[in-house]
Amino acid sequence: MASATPPGDDPQSYTTMSVGDVEAIGAHCQMAFCHQLDFLPFKCESCKGTFCLDHRSETAHKCTKAGAWARSRREASQTPSTTTSTPKPSILNHEQQCSSPVCKTLINTPLTPGIHCADCNRQYCLKHRMREEHDCSKLTPLGARPGGTSKERGLAALDKLRAWGASKKAAVSETAKKTTITSGPKPNSPAARAAAINNLKKTAKGDAKTPPEKRVYLHVEASADTTTAKYPTGKFFYNVEWSVGRILDMAAKDLQVENVNNRGGGEKDRLRIFHVEGGRLLDFSEKIGKVCQTGNTIVLLRGVGPPVPDLIEA
């Protein structure tokens, strides 16, 4: 019968077989000249043979595959693991750090996303994401071309917008002349302007809840060289008490122009309203009734910068 393992024997090169592994009457030792019946025999892990208590070790039964079990165990322990753990981000192994010189927060991690500033082209943590928090106005945008300061680029954009405004104003006047009937009143006469306004009021669309006495009727356009619109022009009326920002949102929706003003970002993607007759960009907080009159034309422009008064001469 099998008994406890004597001291000095290797307890790992063989295992005791359970009752379920043998027949009800036990198993015979496979050692030559032994064949002892053992109800709880031992199994050699190298040659997979069945032996009694006296011949359970590899030396006792002269195992034909002596050491096979030890070699397989050693090779298994030396095999490198296929799963590698990702080290915790730190200053030593993580290059993405908040661009603010006074901040050491690691960004673009599962817990701390990075916020890109479109003006200076840098990445910041949530605390320093605002332009005022990282002194954006004092930074040179990454990737900016050398030579040419932000002031010079702003003046160049201002000149371009001034020239565009002057040409647009002339185009509006020319269009008014062409639409006037030859036998009718002169293009700039009060009668011609009244006829054009009456035609505008008949075709303009807007919120029917707006009282007639509080309506301002405008020609609305989307500049083809700065944005893409499904409907490039339209005639609409708005409440004189509404802000320019609200008018911009409504006009962009009506002309189906992509409007990303509420998503943040820089001026290159921001929409603004240009008042043709006034020759300037309108501020979002201005009341439309105080800056525009019925019959005026406003144009949606993208990437033209903040409002600067008096872009074109009267």
UniProtKB/TrEMBL annotation:
Pfam families: UBL_ZFAND1, zf-AN1
Keyword field contains Plastid: no
Record field: compositional bias (Low complexity): 79-90
Gene3D superfamilies: AN1-like Zinc finger
Domain AN1-type span(s) in chain numbering: 23-71
Keywords, alphabetical: Metal-binding, Zinc, Zinc-finger
Name used for this protein in its record: AN1 zinc finger protein
Start and end residues of each stretch annotated as Disordered: 69-94
Transmembrane feature ranges: none
UniProt key word Calcium: no
InterPro entries in the record: AN1-like_Znf (IPR035896), UBL_ZFAND1-like (IPR057358), Znf_AN1 (IPR000058)
